[in-house]
Amino acid sequence: MHDMLVKLYDLPALDQAKAAARAHGIVVRRAIAPERIAVLAWVRAHFPTSIAEVETAFAQVPVACFVALRGDALVGFACHDVTARNFFGPEGVLETERGKGAGRALLLAALHTQRAQGYAYAIIGGVGPAEFYAKTVGAVAIEGSTPGIYASMLRQ
Fold this sequence. Notes:
Layout: E1 4-7, H1 14-22, E2 27-30, H2 36-46, H3 51-58, E3 65-70, E4 73-80, E5 87-93, H4 102-116, E6 121-124, H5 130-137, E7 140-141
Parallel strand pairs: 5-6
Antiparallel strand pairs: 1-6, 1-7, 2-3, 3-4, 4-5
């Protein structure tokens, strides 16, 4: 999986993305520290390869993780600045909730936060759905980035 580069100074509007998700009954917001155990349990159950990065997101103040909720039920998450500074990800949305704006709103919430931190560009590391990122935020592949930062990572 390659990495992708996003221009943070040319992002779509966050408010519109959140409103589109809200039209499907989904609210996107930053997670808070007391939600750590619940979010980690959910990620462990649905996206187990992301657990270490989500733990790292909860070790930051403010928490570097956004959540998508339908009522009290978690349906998605997105983190930033966890594997490396200026990296977006991981992100995950339940299959049953895809296509309802949660992924877009989560992505934009994190990227707008990175832009507010002073970054001009962000890196989406080890991309899965490259087409989604290209379409949503104009992300482009970084040539020669496979396997990138993950090359010498320990694996179980």
